[in-house]
Specification:
about 0% strand, 8 helices, single chain, about 180 residues
Length: about 180
């Protein structure tokens, strides 16, 4: 694990502090996404530590303590960068679930954060999609996965690639 990456317990505690009281539904979502990340961290090409940290921190931008511009992935990325998180974790959080498409439509600039096209990024999207804010699993293709245009295409691509990796690893797909 890179020396500038805090322990997973510290990242989890940070997310809990920011979300549990203020946005409990998003704290439940982050916990469910992190549980799925732990399960899928063994997939080929997935970098375990960045995935686990990004999964548990992906919703911190929804906290009123962190929110500044009202675009959760940007607010989270800025907050995590100031806290000293590695660029890769910050970039994964900034560009989760094709947020760059949504940002462009909203006039928000995410270019200051590195985007990546990788098994780790795909798996983070999967982890977020299969956990709803009640922490119940979602069927892939429901809820947040059903968006319009380019975001839908990008999300479906990430889901398909991750599903292929899960199948190849012989792991069960844990969705209804």
């Amino acid at each position: 694990m890179p020396s500038d990456l805090p322990s997973f317990a510290a990242s989890r505690a940070l997310a809990e502090t920011l979300l549990a009281d203020h946005r409990p539904e998003w704290w439940r979502h982050a916990q469910a996404a992190a549980r799925e990340a732990v399960r899928l961290a063994q997939l080929p090409g997935v970098d375990r530590d960045p995935l686990l940290h990004a999964a548990v921190l992906l919703d911190v931008g929804r906290s009123p303590v962190v929110a500044r511009v009202g675009f959760p992935s940007l607010d989270a990325a800025r907050f995590l960068r100031v806290r000293g998180y590695p660029r890769r974790v910050v970039g994964l959080v900034a560009h989760q679930l094709a947020s760059d498409v949504e940002a462009e439509q909203a006039g928000v600039d995410l270019s200051g954060f590195a985007a990546e096209d990788s098994p780790t990024a795909d798996t983070l999207w999967w982890c977020s999609l299969v956990a709803d804010t009640s922490a119940a699993p979602l069927a892939v293709g429901d809820g947040r996965a059903d968006t319009d245009g380019r975001r839908r295409d990008a999300t479906r691509g990430a889901v398909a690639r991750t599903r292929d990796r899960i199948d190849a690893a012989g792991l069960p797909v844990v969705v209804p």
